[in-house]
Each structure stands twice: as structure tokens, then as C-alpha cells.
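user: At home tonight, take the chain set out below, taking as long as you need, and be ready to discuss the fold:
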Amino acid sequence: QVQLVESGGGLVQVGGSLRLSCTASGRSTSTYHMGWFRQAPGEEREFVATISGSGTNTYYDDTVIGRFTISRDNAKNTVYLQMNSLKPEDTAVYFCAAGPVMVMVARRYDYWGQGIQVTVSS
């Protein structure tokens, strides 16, 4: 069993930056691929970024390419999402997830954090 806890969210102005962290406990996540998803009010949960277990491979949604960076520190059991040049449309609850496959599909991830709010004000 893996427990995931997100941190680092909050309120930021347009063009600002935030770094989200997702720390795992229960067992090592180094064998899991990790993903970040987000969900705005009234919207479906959508893919943001994913990273392989080793950290070698990453993949991003087109809307965040060049602005967001996913990384991981397996020694700390932590995954990060550095978010730069934030836009109002980035406002959402952000979730991290762990799973056996590196995919963009939420249902393929086995473990989820509780989510953290990111609000970008204009």
C-alpha cells in the first residue's frame, strides 16, 4: 500500500511559479511510474505530466509543455511538479498518482493523493 500526500499549492498571480511536492509513505515508489493530474470545478480530471520510475522518461500534456517540469527524488520518495508562467486556466485541484504503467489515463494509476488547490489570479 502506498500513501501519497501533496504539498506546495496555494494562490499565485498570473506569470508566477509554484512547486508541488508529492511524498509517498508505506512502501518505496521507485518501482512506480508517477503522474500529476488536475481537476477544475465541473471538469473531468485531466492528465498533466508523468515520469518513469527511474526518472529517465517524462511526458507532458501539450498545455503545459515548456512551463511545467516533473521530476523525482527516489531517495526521498518524492515527486515534484515545478510550474512556471502560470495562467488562470491552470487553476485546479492537483493530484499525484502512482501506478505500474507510464500512461496518461487516470484509471491506470493505483494510488492517489488527496489533492491540493492551485489558484492563479489575474
Q: What stands out?
A: The radius of gyration is 13 Å. The longest strand covers residues 18-25. The chain has a mean pLDDT of 95.
